[in-house]
Amino acid sequence: MSAPAALPAEPLVLRDDEGGIATLTLNRPQARNALSRALMEALEAELAAVAADESVKVVVLAAHGAAFCAGHDLKEMRAEPGREMYEALFSQCSRLMTAIVRLPKPVIAKVHAMATAAGCQLVASCDLAYAGASARFATPGVNIGLFCSTPMVALSRAVGRKTALEMLLSGRPLSADEAEAAGLINRAVADDELDATVAQMAGTIAAKSPLTLAIGKEAFYRQAEMPLDEAYAYASQVMTENMMARDAEEGIDAFLGKRPPVWQGR
């Protein structure tokens, strides 16, 4: 008698689309959604797919299980030690975080539990983030002799230097309320209000012109790294190009005509 066929493995990232909102859910609950190389590859592939999908206006990043994301998969890292593997791993992770920032659609993190190390980096890399009251955020690599240097890049761009360094040097986790006060997340809400809060914000953003969202997101990150005069010169050029778009004409005409706009994405 032949052995029963093995059941296919569940996808590492689940995708659900509704109303112009694509929800990407990390699906390694048994490993606290640790960022294995396979999970990072799957998430990067899904991000590329939604980038090319004109029906998607907003992306929500969520997770299954007892943790939002526990950072890198330490067991995987120690199973194949060596400079070549470490360089490839951290390069892959950096590429994933950069893909979130450069995605021409807003990305909202929905954090229901602990986000540590590269998991905290994932939250900091998203454009917006909302968390349940029981969520916690930490960069505790210092506790195991591995300073969270790559998470530091996103973290230090999301919060003030003193907060970032305290998290990095001590490993102390922030509560959801502390994370809100520090600017790591937009808002901390009751755990049972998290889904509704994120859905409302995602729906509000999804109703905007997709072209305008893409222009604005790219411009925000580019100008943030520029000196003041250069930033204003760049932003002025962006606004000029934006004014030439059909959606800008439609939006202004609709406002003046006291009617809802009809976006064309051009």
UniProtKB/TrEMBL annotation:
One of its GO terms (biological process) is fatty acid metabolic process. SUPFAM superfamilies: ClpP/crotonase (SSF52096). One of its GO terms (molecular function) is hydro-lyase activity. Keywords: Fatty acid metabolism, Lipid metabolism, Transit peptide. Pfam families: ECH_1. PANTHER family: ENOYL-COA HYDRATASE DOMAIN-CONTAINING PROTEIN 3, MITOCHONDRIAL, PTHR43602. May play a role in fatty acid biosynthesis and insulin sensitivity. Belongs to the enoyl-CoA hydratase/isomerase family. NCBIfam families: PRK08139.1 (NF006008). This is Enoyl-CoA hydratase domain-containing protein 3, mitochondrial. It comes from Roseospirillum parvum. The lineage of its organism: Bacteria, Pseudomonadati, Pseudomonadota, Alphaproteobacteria, Rhodospirillales.
